[in-house]
Amino acid sequence: MIDSQKQKYSDLIKAEAQRLGFLACGISKATFLETEAPRLEKWLSEKRHGQMQYMENHFDMRLDPRLIVDGAKSVVSMLLNYYPAEQQNPESYKISKYAYGQDYHHVIKTKLKEMLHTLNEQIGEVNGRAFVDSAPVLDKAWAQRSGLGWVGKNNNLISRKTGSFFFICELVLDIDLAYDNPTTDHCGTCTACIDACPTEAIVEPYLVDGSKCISYFTIELKDAIPTEMQGKFDDWMFGCDVCQDVCPWNRFSKPHAEPLFAPNTDLLKYSKSDWEEINLEAFNKIFSKSAVKRTKISGLQRNINFLKNNEI
Known about the structure:
The protein has 312 residues and is an alpha+beta fold. The chain contains twelve helices and ten strands. It has one domain. Helix content is 34%, strand content 13%. The protein has a four-stranded antiparallel β-sheet, sandwiched between helices. Strands 3-10 form a two-stranded parallel sheet. InterPro entries: 4Fe4S_Fe-S-bd, 4Fe4S_Fe_S_CS, QueG, QueG_DUF1730.
C-alpha cells in the first residue's frame, strides 16, 4: 500500500473515532512487544497478580496481536473519557469513577463495531477485532506506542492534555496504516501517587503490586479481605482512584459527554448508612447495566462491612 493511501485510511479512522466521541486515537504497527515481555514475565513470577490467574493465560498472545488476529498489521488505540461532572457525597463510601455509569465494555464495544462497519464500507473488506480490557491485549503498551500518552509511575496511561480518567480500547486490523510515534515520559521527579497510595501498592516507580491494590481487594479477590488491610482502604468500597486523584496531570480532566456514563442520582447522594442498608432491589436500580454488578451485592456488602468494621 502506498504511503498516501495509508495516510488516507489513517485519517479516516481518526475522523471516525472523533465522530464516535473518542478523546484521542493513535495507530501503531502490530508487532511483538519486546520491551514489555521481560517485565510481564517478572511481574507474574513475583505473583504481583495475586489471585488473578487469568493474567497467566495466553502469555504469548498478550505480547503479539498477530497471534490473536490473522494477518494483523496495525493496532488502532483509542481513549474514551469517563471523568464525571458530579461526584459522590464526599462523606460516603466510595466507588471508582469509571463505574458510575453503564458498563464501559458494552458502551465501547458498540462504538468499535460501528467503526469496523464504517471501515468496511469506506475502505473495502477490513478484517479485525475490537478489544476492550477483556482479552489478552496490553492496552496501555499499545496506547503508549501510538502516542496517546505515557505509562506513569502509578502504571496508568497519562496524557498531558487530558490526564488519565479514560478507558483504553483497540481495533487490531489487517491493513497497513500510517503509524504514530510514542510520546515521552512527563512524570519527572513527582512521587504524588506513590506517597498517596493507601496500601503502598506502588512498590517502586512504574511497578504496581496488583495483589496490594484496593481495586484488587474490592473487585478481584473472592476470599475475605486480609485483616492486615484494616484501616487502609480510605472508604473505597469498589475500586480506587487515589493514585489518579492526586496526579497533577488530572487537573486537565474535563467532564465526559457520554450520556450512558451518567450515574444514578442515588449513587451520588447515598450516605454511609444508606450503603450499609442497601438491599437487592436498590442495588439493581443503582447499578443497572453497571460494571459494579460484577462483584454482586454480596461482594459489595462484604466490602462495606469491612469498611464499617474499621470504624468501630
